[in-house]
Automatic annotation (TrEMBL), chain A:
<keyword id="KW-0689">Ribosomal protein</keyword>
<keyword id="KW-0809">Transit peptide</keyword>
<feature type="domain" description="Small ribosomal subunit protein uS7">
    <location>
        <begin position="68"/>
        <end position="225"/>
    </location>
</feature>
<protein>
    <recommendedName>
        <fullName>Small ribosomal subunit protein uS7m</fullName>
    </recommendedName>
</protein>
<dbReference type="InterPro" id="IPR000235">
    <property type="entry name" value="Ribosomal_uS7"/>
</dbReference>
<dbReference type="GO" id="GO:0006412">
    <property type="term" value="P:translation"/>
</dbReference>
<dbReference type="Pfam" id="PF00177">
    <property type="entry name" value="Ribosomal_S7"/>
</dbReference>
<keyword id="KW-0496">Mitochondrion</keyword>
<dbReference type="InterPro" id="IPR023798">
    <property type="entry name" value="Ribosomal_uS7_dom"/>
</dbReference>
TrEMBL record, chain B:
<feature type="region of interest" description="Disordered">
    <location>
        <begin position="17"/>
        <end position="46"/>
    </location>
</feature>
<dbReference type="GO" id="GO:0006915">
    <property type="term" value="P:apoptotic process"/>
</dbReference>
<keyword id="KW-0687">Ribonucleoprotein</keyword>
<dbReference type="Pfam" id="PF10236">
    <property type="entry name" value="DAP3"/>
</dbReference>
<dbReference type="InterPro" id="IPR027417">
    <property type="entry name" value="P-loop_NTPase"/>
</dbReference>
<keyword id="KW-0809">Transit peptide</keyword>
<dbReference type="GO" id="GO:0003735">
    <property type="term" value="F:structural constituent of ribosome"/>
</dbReference>
<keyword id="KW-0689">Ribosomal protein</keyword>
<feature type="compositionally biased region" description="Basic and acidic residues">
    <location>
        <begin position="36"/>
        <end position="46"/>
    </location>
</feature>
Length: 233, 382
């Protein structure tokens, strides 16, 4: 894919060679455009499109397009957070198994909540949340830490210094804690969907071992407040 | 049960069923196909594509075994058992209603691709027959008798046959719970010896044979054989009508994965249960009907694309079942799909916001290919 492409895409791009030669990353020529999967963008009539959108459409007619990665889906039901979580659950590239575990987890959450819903008296029915996606997102949000700890070596000793976290890092930590909690601290014979659905429901209600781990991290950061000035970024 | 039969699309055709349903809100554009007719005898083409309710006590009485696992989970989640009335089932019911019980039993074979609803059609017919008071001999899955058997005993009755005590006792327990009253009425016509000491006299109710099979698990397979023999011999008298419902009948003529102690493979004839069931499925008795289903899902050594009777039964099975009425079961028609989709929406099974939109519905129809099992599996996580 690399190689200087002499397709005549403009003077800047004629003798193009990447500064670093990537081995595992994508090596597309910068002239390649990203694929667009949303149906709505193709169904918009010409009048509604702004200047940039019209230019973009015309560009698409002449420029080549990158191949769409397998994770990119045009389905209305696809959710980037769920895909990320599925990828983190995956072992040795077995995406089929990871995806089926994820769908079984969502179904298990839905069944538990629906059973509770049908047994509950009328006035409590609105409080019970049955949508597994809402529960998943809320549980992840509840598990995200606000502040993290980082190891900084100063004068030969390593200190745990409280440090702000980016959004990506928070999401990653929340998902990682949920998965490790399910893999390690449960009975050997329980299946993953069962364990995960239980953990997600506990996290949704702000209970459970993952929330506890988040609180422990916050307490450690609070205790190490004195070293906060060691951070230089 | 509230009378819930509102059909927006078919109002012109049906005319009736304009009963208003209080729990369907006015703003929902999709029709909810329910029918309050819970007696399968009264189901006609008018009810096609609609879901009828079976009261939960009846489910426990009529189907101690036999319902698919996912359907049982659905009953537990929704707190009700709703079965769709479909054309193959209506055809079968019409044939059964018009059948002459003096003639030899007619064999019906329900076949179709994977996940199209063959077992549910069988369960619909079983429900109809038990409502009409027939004696129902329901074998939930014949494949369970030819694979994964932990204990194989040599039969005491015939030297070269093998007994399966576990499977036989499980089946006897379920048979007893669904057909209590027949077991008191039917009397044995011969004296049966169980081992050296115990025997059942002539003229004792069949319930005693079943008790004997449950108490002495070693002779459970022989008890099953005796029950089948007695019922078959007495069915022509007319005091009861017999329905033999076998799911996965292609297991009786295939191969097994069982091995004897010297590691030689077991063929199905060598199993007592299979041998007796084959005699039951032969049409040399009168006073009832035999309804069977082919199934590739649990079958052994058959390719996954096989679904026709010729492919699944093989030459031997096809010849044994030969004059039979084939009943194909297709995927959902657009109307049935609408009905199923509306039911999932109404029961709050489809929770995703996009699932309520037209786009979501079109996507579900495309991805599942209107196959009932695929639709159920897709709608699970949504």
């Amino acid at each position: 894919m690399a190689a200087p492409s002499a397709a005549g895409m403009g003077r800047r791009l004629r003798a193009w060679l990447p500064r670093i030669m990537p081995v595992r990353w994508s090596r597309y020529n910068p002239s390649y455009l990203e694929p667009e999967v949303k149906k709505e963008s193709y169904q918009k009539p010409l009048e509604e499109q702004t200047e940039e959108e019209r230019e973009q459409m015309e560009l698409k007619a002449v420029r080549p397009i990158k191949a769409a990665p397998p994770t990119l889906s045009s389905s209305v039901f696809s959710d980037p957070m769920i895909s990320k979580f599925t990828n983190m659950m995956m072992k040795s590239g077995n995406k089929v198994l990871a995806r089926s575990l994820m769908s079984q987890t969502l179904e298990a959450i839905k069944r538990k909540q629906l059973e509770k819903y049908h047994k509950a008296p009328e006035n409590e029915k609105e409080t019970i949340e049955c949508n597994p996606y809402v529960i998943f997102h809320q549980a992840l949000k509840n598990c995200q830490p606000i502040i993290g700890l980082s190891n900084i070596t100063k004068g030969g000793k390593t200190y745990q210094v409280p440090v702000p976290l980016t959004d990506n890092r928070k999401r990653f930590l929340a998902m990682k804690w949920l998965i490790t909690e399910c893999r390690e601290n449960k009975h050997r014979r329980t299946l993953m969907p069962e364990k995960l659905s239980q953990e997600l429901l506990l996290a949704f209600n702000n209970e459970g071992p993952v929330i506890k781990r988040k609180h422990v991290l916050h307490k450690m950061a609070e205790a190490n407040r004195a070293y906060a000035h060691f951070r230089w970024w | 049960q509230l009378d819930r039969g509102c059909a927006l699309h078919t109002a012109a055709r049906d005319g009736l069923s304009s009963v208003s349903s209080q729990d369907v809100p006015a703003q929902r554009p999709r029709a909810v196909f329910h029918t309050s007719e819970s007696d399968p005898a009264k189901h006609t083409e008018q009810h096609e594509g609609r879901l009828y309710n079976i009261p939960l006590e009846e489910v426990k009485a009529v189907f101690p075994h036999g319902l698919p696992h996912r359907f049982q989970q659905q009953i537990r989640t929704f707190n009700e058992a709703r079965v769709m009335v479909r054309k193959p089932a209506l055809e079968l019911l019409a044939c059964l209603k018009g059948s002459n019980l003096a003639h030899p039993a007619v064999r019906y074979v329900i076949y179709g691709e994977r996940g199209t609803g063959k077992t549910m059609t069988l369960c619909h017919v079983v429900h109809y027959c038990s409502r009409q008071g027939w004696l129902v001999l329901h074998i939930p899955d014949a494949h369970l008798w030819v694979k994964n058997c932990k204990e194989l005993l040599q039969s005491s009755y015939k030297k070269d046959r093998l007994d399966q005590p576990l499977q036989a006792s499980v089946w006897l327990k379920n048979f007893k719970s669904s057909n209590e009253r027949f077991l008191q009425e039917i009397k044995t016509q011969k004296k049966y010896m169980w081992g050296k000491q115990e025997c059942t006299e002539e003229g004792r109710p069949l319930g005693e044979v079943v008790e004997q099979g449950l108490a002495r698990v070693r002779s459970a397979s022989d008890a099953v054989g005796v029950v089948l023999r007695e019922i078959k011999q007495q069915s022509h008298r007319g005091s009861f009508r017999l329905l033999v419902a076998v799911d996965g009948v292609n297991a009786l003529w295939g191969r097994t994965t069982l091995r004897k102690e010297d590691k030689s493979p077991v063929s199905p004839e060598e199993l007592t249960l299979v041998h007796n069931l084959r005699k039951m499925v032969k049409n040399d008795w009168s006073g009832g009907a035999i309804v069977t289903t082919l199934s590739q899902t649990g079958s052994l050594f058959k390719p996954s694309s096989a679904y026709t009777p010729q492919e699944l039964l093989g030459k031997e099975g096809f010849d044994a079942l030969d004059p039979f009425v084939p009943i194909p079961v297709p995927n959902y028609s657009p109307r049935e799909f609408e009905s199923c989709y509306g039911y999932y929406l109404e029961r709050k099974w489809l929770q995703h916001e996009k699932a309520h939109t037209e786009d979501g519905k079109a996507e579900l129809q495309f991805l599942s290919g209107s196959n009932p099992r695929q639709l159920d599996r897709l709608a699970g996580p949504l």
